[in-house]
# Entry
Amino acid sequence: MAFHALQAALAAMGIERSLDSLVTRSGEAFWVPWSETADVETLRYVRMMSTLFRATDQAKVRLEIGAEDEAGSAIAALRKQTAAGRLVIAPVFSEGRFGVIQSVDSEGAAHGVGPDQLEPGFIDLAGGWSGAFPAYAPRKWIYGAIRRDRPIKPAGIPVPDLAGILFVPLGDDIEIRGVRFGIEAVRGATEAVRAGAALRDTAALERLLVTFEQAEFGFGCAERWLESKEANHLWEAPDLARLARSMRAACGELAERLWDSSGTASAGALGQAVTGRKSMVFELPADLDREPPGKVVELPRGRAVIVDTRSRRAALGRLADVVERAALAFAKEVDSVGALTR
# Structure
């Protein structure tokens, strides 16, 4: 959501950058976390802060992160930033839902937009807010001010800079380089699927869902950017977009097999889904009038039933193999392009 807010703020400043471009060129697309022990919220929000800074740098603006100790000082800080003509992004709608703030008055009423307020309007900040930017633990009264104090250069990057976009380390504490980090995380998650961790408990299932959904989103952004005119300097690697598409599709299908929502319409629809689809986990409809055909689990996204059979486990394992092959094929092509551009 920080990247969505950044894109909206840039657009308000007259700087057009697609979300796909910001996410892919910053390395955010490939920052796919996986852990067999971390809590779900950590997997959902952990990112390297460097990706957000690299995204703003590509747009020729500067991002300054600030945090205050109390609501009053936070509101005063936002007033000062917006009075200087800067836009502020902050998680004012919920912990992970950022708004773009244009002005703030002395009472804590802000004027801005966000995911729950697409038209400019007032946002009450008097009660405080909390949330997290990439790599930050959630905390109160955090914000980012965007400065535009240098000239905007034409969009586009020379071919040699490709290595600085996709292939450099995203942080000194991470040994695996750029896109490789996401590939290795996805491989770890596919191994967990094959080993049966997906159905061991609800926490394991939720962690896998988060990883594969984030991989689907990231590689979807990469696919669209690689197919855009903005990426036409990558003519040496025409297969990158196709391989990103394969990765996005495989991750999306695996995520759907882990959480199939096709049974939400009615009890009858659930019965048809369980009979006709290879998924193992089906979201329970609200009007279910008979005993669910398997183990019921409770997750933040809703109630579901696990239909655990040997054939469905085998199908899930085969799909995990497809995801892993797609990840390795993308990584191999990235390595060959990196060799050409260095």
In short: The radius of gyration is 22 Å. DSSP finds eleven helices and eleven strands in the chain.
